[in-house]
Structure formats: C-alpha cells, structure tokens
Design brief:
Length: 101
C-alpha cells in the first residue's frame, strides 16, 4: 500500500456497536496456522475495489487488526446509500466466518 500498488480499506464499524472498539462483537480465534474472524462490519470505504482490508476483531488477548485479502471470492451486498459522501463506495461485510493468515 505504501508504494501505491495496493488499495486498502478499514473495517472497524459494526451494525450494533458503531465505531466503539470497547463494544466490538466481531471475534477472532486461532485455527491451525492462522485465524478465523467471525462478525459483521459496516461502512467499509473502498471495500469493493480494495486489495487488502484491515479488519478489527476481539481476541482472547484484546483487540487486534488483521490484514485480510479483500478480493477473495465473496458476494458483497450493494453499496450503502449515504448522503454527503456520494463518491465513497462503502460496503458492509461479514456474516460468514472468514479466514485470515
């Protein structure tokens, strides 16, 4: 991302807790050599065109950010309709557990 060769997005906001990390319900647990992330995120700007996502989740050791390939096979819901930020293609994501290396 630092060289401009990849586009990133940031997944913190959740449907019920908003952008408050202390109220976060998305969890991550170790599985084999990686992690499984389970939860839902909202208003992820540039998610539909991003190469990599930073997804925030609660672990048994606290809150961590996980780098997740954003162009994995999945079905993104339609872009969220927001006023005043028409140029931002924000999406929601989550629901199915998601593996992160």
């Amino acid at each position: 991302m630092a060289t401009g060769q990849l586009i990133g997005c940031f997944g913190l906001t959740e449907p019920e807790s908003g952008s408050d990390p202390a109220s976060m319900t998305t969890t991550a647990r170790r599985a084999g050599g990686g992690w499984v992330i389970n939860g839902a995120k909202r208003w992820i700007g540039l998610a539909s065109i991003a190469d990599v996502a930073v997804i925030w989740a609660r672990t048994e050791d606290g809150i961590r950010g996980f780098l997740v390939p954003a162009r994995r096979p999945c079905s993104w819901p339609p872009p969220d309709r927001r006023r005043g930020i028409g140029g931002s293609r924000a999406r929601s994501g989550g629901g199915d557990p998601y593996a992160a290396a």
